[in-house]
């Protein structure tokens, strides 16, 4: 998340929308709950939805010129937004092109659905993104999180990543310049990053890719609560352990705080139901951490990203409707 030196503290409640370079900047109306798979989150001060690079650069410049902090959101499938919303601009990324550069090499817009890409590549006979079929995020979110499953991860097949910096410059970073880890990418620490705009993947031919993908999807359907609202695994797996197993062995399946609940099907998936708040979910996460630590002496670490409403205790958040 880019945080300029000043945050918005003065909210102009009269200006509901502004238009700039065919971008509609919506004030105070957009609820983050609509942008998150958990369905949690209050209103953001500014909201903009974009579908190409020019619009993205305009949005970033607009935020910079007005000292508005901003965050890029894909499908919101790994974010816990705040009940108080976001004191800044939420940029919804819908840059969705797909280019077949050469056989097995795909250059893809960062707003493209990662699961769709995974299915397409396997259907075309290429291996490396079988796992992506079950991940309901965007290509940008997958690169940022280094999403993975079943022994595969996004970084394995990245050839290069195109980004826009906070001062609106474009850069292409080759895989050798990027150091990834388990659910870790260099983008999470990159101070001058505004957004990942495109990713080029290099895959290898395989006649069995499709079959492998179907096996992975079938396993997922059996073991994950896909019909309920979640953000996938809440915690990273500690080295040598499965976070889900630890939570289950601590007797926490079905454990609940308000509208937040540990799934009965997969203990590392936390389900939101009814009018679940971010406070319920945070409390559940903290209690589960505490109980697992007491029982096993293992400190779980979140895989999900917290998006705080503001970066100062004095910030002025638009009222929850
Ligand atoms: C049912 C379910 C199953 C899941 N299974 C898996 C799984 O098997 N493996 C796995 O790893 N994850 C899994 N997830 C979690 C999630 O889908 C992935 O982490 C996904 O990659 C997040 O993508 P997103 O577009 O939703 O990112 P968001 O949730 O929108 O954002 C996540 C973070 O990435 C940043 N970000 C997003 N897009 C960009 C961009 N273009 N440029 C810069 N930063 C960006 C955001 O600012 C935020 O910090 C699952 C989630 C669900 C709901």
Automatic annotation (TrEMBL):
Tree of life domain: Eukaryota
Gene Ontology MF terms: FAD binding; UDP-N-acetylmuramate dehydrogenase activity
Cell location: Cytoplasm
Pathway in which this enzyme or protein is active: Cell wall biogenesis; peptidoglycan biosynthesis
Primary location class: cytoplasm
Function: Cell wall formation.
Keywords of this entry: Cell cycle, Cell division, Cell shape, Cell wall biogenesis/degradation, Cytoplasm, FAD, Flavoprotein, NADP, Oxidoreductase, Peptidoglycan synthesis
Cofactors named for this entry: FAD
Top enzyme category: oxidoreductase
A cellular-component GO term for this protein: cytosol
InterPro entries listed in its UniProt record: FAD-bd_PCMH (IPR016166), FAD-bd_PCMH-like_sf (IPR036318), FAD-bd_PCMH_sub1 (IPR016167), FAD-bd_PCMH_sub2 (IPR016169), MurB (IPR003170), MurB_C (IPR011601), MurB_C_sf (IPR036635), Oxid_FAD_bind_N (IPR006094)
Catalytic activities: UDP-N-acetyl-alpha-D-muramate + NADP(+) = UDP-N-acetyl-3-O-(1-carboxyvinyl)-alpha-D-glucosamine + NADPH + H(+)
Xref: Gene3D superfamilies: 3.30.465.10, UDP-N-acetylenolpyruvoylglucosamine reductase, C-terminal domain, Uridine Diphospho-n-acetylenolpyruvylglucosamine Reductase, domain 2
Taxonomic lineage of the native organism: Eukaryota, Viridiplantae, Streptophyta, Embryophyta, Tracheophyta
Protein name per its UniProtKB record: UDP-N-acetylmuramate dehydrogenase
EC number(s) given by UniProt: 1.3.1.98
A Pfam family assignment: MurB_C
Single GO BP term: cell wall organization
Domain FAD-binding PCMH-type, first and last residues per copy: 39-206
HAMAP family: MurB
